Amino acid sequence: MSELTPTPLLEVEHLHAGFHIQGKMYHAVDNVSLKLHAGKIICIVGESGCGKSVLSLSIMDLLPKGIGSVTEGRVHFNGRDITKLSMEEMNKIRGKEISMIFQEPMTALNPVFTIGSQLQEVLHNHTTMSKKVSRARVIELLKQVGISRADHIVDEYPHQLSGGMRQRVMIAMAIACNPKLLIADEPTTALDVTIQAQILELLKDIKQHSDMSILFITHDLGVVAEMADEVIVMYGGQIVEQAPVAAIFHDPKHPYLRLLLQSIPRMEETKHRLESIQGIVPSLRNMPRVGCRFADRCPSVMDNCRTVTPQLLKDAGGHAVRCLLYQDTSSRYSEQEVKS
């Protein structure tokens, strides 16, 4: 008898989300599906404007009301469809079962409240701890994320801390209630490389000791190599490639991913000029309705790339790619359409 496949902690099914601009809906996330199992890390990678952050905000139901919305699809968390929950029900889940680290801690932290009071608010919203017990828990959390002088930092304000320390505070806030899922939206972007390495090591350590799942959003392929079990590459609001991390680096398929990998500087190579991808990601208003959304920037573009819309298909090994180069009748990628 074959072993049953475990139920994913997070399952996103055919999600469409975007923004209402002058009476018209523009989708920043277009038919995205993914599965994240307990204790695993999925990295979502792509240039700015590819839809990574909108996807994370859609999962958390944090798109700006009246402007952004999920128009189609479902998000199942721990076996429950959270797209159907009321605001009150979602508030009980956010911070307790699903937490998020935002990419700029200075804007995420309230400048007029102390670090301790902001962390205690999370605990008071989701637990029955007294003020004395919650303060002790806050100090414990600050020590857990590597902040020295935690008993003093607890009474300081965000502007008194360095960028790295503020990001550690955001991580402490995110793990305060031991969530099952952590969404990290480019948490190391504004930090120097030394602090970035420390933050990544901290997240891996927390994940290892708590069996927490992480959805890690980044544009840095170095971070992907360090963190990921599985990688999703997004472009123009769509998934263009999805595979285990080893396959992404050793057997890239989509021309976009290949160009991203070529743009990484290498110690063993001497170059007078760094590689770059010509052009820019199309804006929401100028997104092609048919054909491949990467066609105008693709070095492997074919005549039908602008008239035939490629589907996200996978091979028998689970490596998925959205590209007409792999979708002819002889291709192994035409055998099985991606359903997840």
Tell me about this structure.
The chain has 340 residues and is α/β, with parallel strands linked by helices. It has a domain at 255-340. 30% of the residues lie in helices and 22% in strands. It is built from 11 helices and 13 strands. It has helices at residues 52-60, 87-93, 105-108, 115-126, 131-144, 150-153, 163-175, 193-210, 221-227, 245-250, 255-262, and strands at residues 10-21, 24-36, 41-45, 68-77, 80-81, 98-101, 181-185, 213-218, 230-235, 238-244, 313-314, 320-321, 336-337. Strands 6-7-8-3-9-10-12-11-13 form a 9-stranded mixed β-sheet, sandwiched between helices. Strands 2-1-4-5 form a 4-stranded antiparallel β-sheet. A hairpin with a 2-residue loop joins β1 and β2. It is globular. The chain starts with 9 loop residues before the first strand and ends with a strand.
Write down the overall geometry: globular
Q: Which whole number gives the mean pLDDT?
A: 89
Helix content: 25-40%
> SSE order, as H and E?
EEEHEEHEHHHHHEHEHEEHHEEE
> What fraction of the residues are assigned to beta strands by DSSP?
15-25%
Q: State the secondary-structure class.
A: alpha/beta
Low-confidence stretches: 334-340
